[in-house]
Every structure is written in C-alpha cells, then in structure tokens.
Amino acid sequence: MYFEMYIYLMKNIQYSLLELATLKKNNTAADAIERASQGARHIDKLGYTRIWLAEHHNMEFIASSATSVLIGHIASQTKNIRVGSGGIMLPNHSPLVIAEQFGTLESIYPNRIDLGLGRAPGTDQVTAMALRRNNLNTAFYFKDDVQSLQRYFSQENHSSKVRAFPGEGLDIPIWILGSSTDSAFLAAELGLPYAFAAHFAPNMLKAASEIYRMNFKPSEQLQEPYFMVCVNIIAADSNEEALFLSSSLQNLFAGIVTSRRMPLFPPTEKTIFHGIPEIEQAVQSMTSSTYTGSPEQLAKSLKELIDEVHAQEIMTTNYIYDDEKRLKSFELIKETFDLINQQ
C-alpha cells in the first residue's frame, strides 16, 4: 500500500503541523481560516510532511469544527503536503459517512489525504450528547468503528450490501490518535501508525511509546511501528524571544484550565496567571511538552525527545500571535530538523 511504501522511503525525522484554526483577539472565523491557509501554503513550500486539522466543537475561538470541509479547503490551497485529520473524533460520526467524506477528498487530492482517528468527543459532555444524539456509548465501539472504516475502504467490500462511494478501494492511511495507553494498545493491535497528543496531555507519552512499540503487530497498511509525537514548538532567532512569544500559548492554556476560554492574545512580559500557584502548576502540567528557542537549542532538546520515545515524526502546534513571526517560526523549525537530520 502507498503508506507502507512511503514509510520505507523516509530516512530522516519528519516534521509536520497540527492546525486548529485558532482565532486571534478581535478576529473572525474567516480570519482564522485564512491564517491557517496562509500557514499551510508556507509550510508546503518549506517541505513539511503533513498538516492536520483538529475536530473541536462548541469552542468559540476554534474554527475547525467542520473538519472534513476545512481539510478540503487547505488541500485546495496547497500542492504537495499531505492534509488530514488530527483527528476525526470517530464516535461523533457514522463510519460510512467518514468513509465517503475521505473517499471524496482522496478522489480530489490523490495520495495526499490522511485519516487520523480519535476516541474523545472533542468537546464537553453536553455537546457530545448533541453530536451523538444522546448516545454516549459510541465511544465504547471505537475499535469496531475503525475496523468498519477499514472494510469500507477495502476492495474486498465489493460484495457487501453497504459500500462507500467514493472510498472503496482507495488507499487512505488510517492513524490512531491518543493521549493514553489505551490508544497505544489499539494502534499496536491493529498495526496502524500512532500519533500521541503530548501537546496537551504529556504525562503518558513514554509509557504509550513503549506499549505501542512492544505490542505492534504488522498489518497490510504497516509492517513496522510508526510513532509520531505532537508537541508545542515556539521557534525564534533567540531563546529569549521564543520564550517571550510562548506566553501567548501559556495564557491560552490558562483559559482552558480555568474554563474561561479566550482567543489568542499578543505575548506578555508576565503570564496572566503569574503568581497564582494553582494555575501555574496546572498550565505547566499541560504544557510540559513545549519546546522554545533558537534552532540550535530546539535541535538539542527535540533530539533528546526523539531518542527517548523512538519517534519517527514530530508534529507541532503553533500559537504565535504575530503572523510574520509565526511564518518565520515555521522556517526556523525547518532549520531545526535540518540540524537534527544532519546528526
């Protein structure tokens, strides 16, 4: 299959972007989507491997709720980079609908579409009930739903009474996403590539990596484990500037832990929660997989992470407020991985 051949062609650590289409202060959803498109066009030219869009719901300052629609838009704005979901929260959807949506995307943008799947709702429980029409038990059938998707994409499904058009027979790589050891066991059992969300839930990263690698069973899609880690990276010309820029990320996460979500604000000399130990500790716990600095500093710290968890790919978020500094950060991240891959 395409993904398997693609893996074996790669020798270096790959680098990619997770995009949430986060709204800046005083911006609209249209502004956020255009900003995401601008970033996608930029990293496409820089040679990033993929850009994924995340599914979130009932969040005023995130514009990626219609994830499949946004994937199509980003794919139309780019030429080479792979575009996919990071992820589709599968319990919110019928597997048949997702097979048709991604079959359509793959038909329009061949060999460029990824399908990352998560078990979480991507929202609060009340909204999850609205999405799942009061059936919250769908999360318990995640494995079954993943396998249903695989069947819909398979050529062998041609004799079934229910088939996915477009979708059947198309080579769309399926990934398992997660932030716990449960997802690691599932990805290993199904022989699928695994992406870990250390950018907001870093605590089980090392354990999940070991479980995935030790329990991996080869599959038609993948012969060897393929592990991607998503972290927060803030790159700048100097370590001091990168640390300053990262305050926008820290302030954003403070809104999450205090249930007072906010848009992306300009950086501040001191974080808005400075001197409040409870919030400082909570934010630090959520963002401990955040890497700031110049390319030289980042190359050193990220290489240590890569070696520790045996990652083949790093995916980064980017919560830099200033548009030009954000684009510059993408360039410096490329320089970082150039340094890593020269070692």
UniProtKB/TrEMBL annotation:
CDD domains: Flavin_utilizing_monoxygenases. It holds the Pfam family Bac_luciferase. One of its GO terms (cellular component) is cytosol. One of its GO terms (molecular function) is oxidoreductase activity, acting on paired donors, with incorporation or reduction of molecular oxygen. It comes from the Bacteria. Residues 27-246 form the Luciferase-like domain. Gene3D superfamilies: Luciferase-like domain. Keywords: Oxidoreductase. To bacterial alkanal monooxygenase alpha and beta chains. NCBIfam families: oxido_grp_1. This is Luciferase-like monooxygenase. It comes from Sphingobacterium mizutaii. The gene is limB_2.
